[in-house]
Amino acid sequence: MVAFLVRRLFGAVLVCVAVTFIVFLIFIVVPGGGANGTAERIAGKNATPQNVINIEKQWGFDKPFYVQYWRLVDKMFTNKLVSYTSQQKVLTQIWEGMPATFSLSIGAGIIFLFFGILVGVISAVTAGRLSDRVITVLALIGISMPVFWLGIIARYYLAEGGLTTFFPDGEYVSLSSNPTAWFSHLVLPWLVLAVLFIGFYGRVLRGNILDTINEDYVRTARAKGLSPRRILIKHVLRTSLIPVVTLFGLDFAQVVGGGAILTETVFDLHGVGEYAAQSINNFDLPPIIGVTMYGAFFIVIFSVIVDLFYAYLDPRIRPT
Amino acid sequence: MAQHGSETEFTLDTATELAVEEPANTIRGRSPWSLAWHRLRHNYVAFAALGLFIAIVAACALASVYATHVAGTGPNANHVLETVKVNGKPQSVVSAGGLINKHTGKLCSTDVSGCELVSSIPIGPTWFNAGGKFVLGADSNGRDIAVRLLYGGRNSLIVGIGSSAICVVVAVLLALIAGYFGGWIDFIITRFFDLFYAFPVILLGIALGSALAISGFHHFGITIESGSLWIPTLVISYVEVPYVGRPLRGQVLSLREKEFIEAAVAQGAGPFRIMFSELLPNVASSVLIFFTLIIANNIVLEAALSFLGAGVQPPTPSWGTLISDGQDLIVTRPWLALAPGIAIVLTVLSLNVFGDGLRDALDPRAKVKIEH
Amino acid sequence: MNRTNRWKWLLTATALAVGVTLIAAACGSSSKKNATASTAATTTAAATGKTFPNFRIAYDTGTDYLDPGLSYTVEGWGVMWNVYLPLIGYKHVNGPDGATIVPYLAESLPTISSDGKTYTLTLRKGLKYSNGTPVKASDFKATIERDFLIDSPGVGFFGNIVGANQFGKTKKGSITGITTDDATGKITIQLTAPQGDFENILATEFAAPLPANTPAKDQSTTPAPSTGPYVIKSYSPNKQAILVRNPDFKVADFGGNVPYGNPDKITIDIIGDDTVALQRVINGQDDYDFHQIPPDRLASTQAKYGADIKVYTPANLYYFFMNTRVAPFNNLKVRQAVNYAVDRQALVRIYGGLATPTENVLPPTYPQYKKHTLYPYSLAKAKALVTASGDKGMSVTVWNHQRGLDPKAGDYLTSVLNSIGFKAKEKIINAAVYWTTVGNQATKAQIGFADWFQDYPHPLDWFDVLLNGERITATHNNNYADFDDKAINAKIDALKKQPTLTEAVNAQWATVDKSVMEQAPWVPFLNRQFTDFFNSDMDLSCYINNVLYQFDFATICHK
Fold this sequence. Notes:
The structure holds three protein chains of three kinds.
Chain A: H1 2-29, H2 35-43, H3 49-59, H4 65-77, H5 90-125, H6 130-144, H7 147-158, H8 179-213, H9 216-224, H10 228-259, H11 261-267, H12 272-281, H13 285-313
Helix pairs in contact in A: 1-13, 2-3, 5-6, 5-8, 5-10, 6-8, 7-8, 7-11, 8-10, 10-12, 10-13, 11-12, 12-13
Chain B: H1 10-21, H2 32-41, H3 44-61, H4 63-71, E1 83-86, E2 89-92, E3 98-101, E4 115-118, H5 145-181, H6 183-197, H7 201-215, E5 217-219, E6 222-224, H8 230-256, H9 259-266, H10 271-307, H11 319-327, H12 335-362
Antiparallel strand pairs in B: 1-2, 3-4, 5-6
Helix pairs in contact in B: 2-12, 3-5, 3-12, 4-5, 5-6, 5-8, 5-10, 5-11, 6-8, 7-8, 8-10, 10-11, 10-12, 11-12
Chain C: H1 3-27, E1 52-59, H2 74-80, E2 88-90, E3 101-103, E4 111-112, E5 118-122, H3 137-149, H4 164-170, E6 178-181, E7 186-190, H5 198-202, E8 230-236, E9 240-245, E10 263-270, H6 274-283, E11 288-289, H7 295-305, E12 309-312, E13 316-322, H8 332-341, H9 344-350, E14 355-357, H10 379-389, E15 395-401, H11 406-419, E16 423-429, H12 431-438, E17 447-453, H13 460-466, H14 486-496, H15 503-519, E18 522-528, E19 530-534, E20 538-539, E21 545-546, E22 550-551, E23 557-558
Parallel strand pairs in C: 1-10, 1-11, 15-16, 15-17
Antiparallel strand pairs in C: 2-3, 4-5, 5-7, 6-7, 8-9, 9-10, 11-19, 12-19, 13-17, 13-18, 14-18, 20-23, 21-22
């Protein structure tokens, strides 16, 4: 077990580093993103050629790209990493964006896990009947909606300034300053983000349950005379939920890692995802590297945790 | 994975049905493909969905026909100052705006009392009351939204289907090579997949899309200009390869252990023969299902990237850029954002439903899922 | 491990994970300090009786720095105008009189030598910074040198001072052209050549004196002490800035040129989304919306809160540049054709109606503005000129960036170019790299979008920066049209030597405007108007909008 953990964590670190290097290359190789272009941008509209030269020296743009990359990574770990456009510390910005991203992810995660399981169980148990078909259709519609479009429509129809004014219109209020406002500002983003996943999880779970129901050991349990509910909860669900938990772990990690860019942008939540999208839009390399590292870190850690859970829950699956 | 009423005995039933239909003295083996086709034929919902998808594709393909004969304009022509007759009454395509004197209706030079601020708003949907012009309204450049919707659909579908095709081909190749050869080749390819699993897809897509959008792609001797549709197509296909490649590789790995491969090796078949004549046909049904589902996924991804400005570049219309354009006028002219969104939902829904039906037909017990 | 233990393990692990993440969610926003209301220090200043506790602003994310040596945006200057006072500055009034320069930290306007190369000022006596240290004449020299040390984007303004460029290159020694005497408070500045807009340059925030020991790096988050009516108490980039009263500020010290300030505290909330900002003001969470009212919401806002909307026109110009060195725009006929083909009214509508059409270089608020109509809209004339030019059918690429409404202007231009006989297509690139790309000669951009908002109210900021052929550079070029007319260059250089703007000088500038447009290097199309929106509790009879700094935070009143 320990050897497995060590190997996986080591692999995780390698992956994080490789991921940031790839992102760095993408932006360095692009004209306007490399040395000269960036220095000119930082220097501003009215700058003299001397300004540009000074800035190049100051930021180290005259060095070869691997040296530049090494310096960026070094600065990241010593919290000296500073954005090109705003001169602010990247780690501070990420830290400040985390409450919004975490609030969004956890809330949406709880909603879509709970309702996804509920939906999946109901449609599996009533397979073939009307409720199953209705749920399947709704789930498919949910999967088919682009999340950012749903967010725009939700803002228009349900938020202040639109047709009805049930909810506040975007922005994030921190939990510590005003819990009710925190909640009301997050309801729409939670629902919008969850809709997509509920449909997906519902269908995955439904498929798994229907598969498991046909397994021999379930038939044995039925033959033994156990009640359907007991069979469902104690035998079928346990096995069916395992892949769902795996998927949930990875999806949650993606959302926390800045993957909810679209929802955060549409609702202006100032989370890590929105910060990532803005930095990419500004070709601001240090925050891009910082957010990439942050995102990769979460995804990789969660995939290790998920592997551990999986192995623990199903003794047949041992890490290789 | 949807299953119909009579789940477990499907295969047996189907074969029995078919056997009953045949004359008693012919013994015909039924290939899995014809069994699958039979199952699919009876899935009316799936066929309806396929029909819807084909109808959408056809409508978008006929965009130029609509443009010339119905709307009378192209997707990029600006008609800002023109007027159209709606039910006989002339209306500006884009209304005049500015500081208007409430009493005289004329422009005020400075902000004095009695002057009201009015913004220029494009015309709303005319629903064929203007002779086919501006059926869904105009955008703030005076362009016909219905025409742009169709041309945009064409571009979104080209990017969506094209990227899926490239993605699936590359993923299949990589999966076959990794699954068959194993060893360090497999190790490298799997690490490559792992690497991209650690990226939120959208983040990588935006990064690549934004970076390539400035200058296009000028490496390895290939030159692609930045306005071309190839850029989002290649970006999306590149980003999605691991999500198709990893499950396929798993399938190839399990197939490799089967006896028929051993038999082929014993017969002296080389690696390429084994990969393409033995392994490939057995993953073909999964590939087909993946292809359908990934088209749906890629259409949404293209919309998302274009919405964020990292996909199809303006002024080329696509459903994503149309939603982004319509966002600014969502309160006064909701149709600008609603129409492309509804188009996406219908297209993706039809593909998902058909893909479901396809999965039921080809692999009733399939564990084929696109895991994100 | 038996079954029950397994589930317990699972539950505790989940609980832990959820708990940790919830804690992270709750405590991350430590930077949003709940600033306690600071009591207004009692001063001997004549209080206007219109003071009120807190003025809350919904600002936008354009705020770059709150360091006067680094900020180059309207947002940054709007905040610092009442914080860091230069030696001379502008009047806090509405209308064109707001361009008049009056003494701030200096006793009077500079004495200019007859050859126009020496400027002398004297610092007022007894001035102090907000931390109590006295303001010294040598602080001015140190501030200008600091600008060079931090590679300020404003150093281009000071290049004419003797020794400045040398100092900028070596960053050693000092700027020999500035001499100061702390005992008398005298400041003498030597220029290499007379410069007509030097007074305006002395009035920029880049020249606002800071204590000599201010570190040579960005002080935005550790604000330097101030000389104006307000002090920056805290700045959390992209989140919030808080200004409180400067206890040492005395209105009488400045002869009434700088206001006391009505709000005791100014809270600046930085909001990204236009609609959210509007809603905050409507809800009463903020008192003033710096953002533009989205055209979408204008009708509903106008209906309910029409009296709280103010429209103003800052000095700006939106235009398309045409590169006179690259075909087909090296041909005068083609450039004139485009000017005839563009219907500026259409572009006004594309920008939501909040703009006035123009074909002048200078904006209408300038005394040097004299309207000319050389190119009344005529598609027929345009087509004829294109045919006559012989360049019909050429491929043209229209450059633009992707932000805001500007891409739509490019869409319109492309449509127009196609209608007069060119094969036009667009190239949209990221705003972050747009200006440096079209400002690079290697790009050979044929035609593209550009805009210009004044740095200070003087025609030199337009003609010398954007249209003087002698200032064309290989990279970082501001003269996107590469316009190089020898006669006009000479005229600009001659007018540059005029130290003051007299009637005669103004008239000459108006002629330059017309001469430039006769050569048509640009297609100027509109001057954009902007909105200020207030909460109904604000008394708009006190509203002051300065020609350069726009809405004045200090002088607004509460009902």
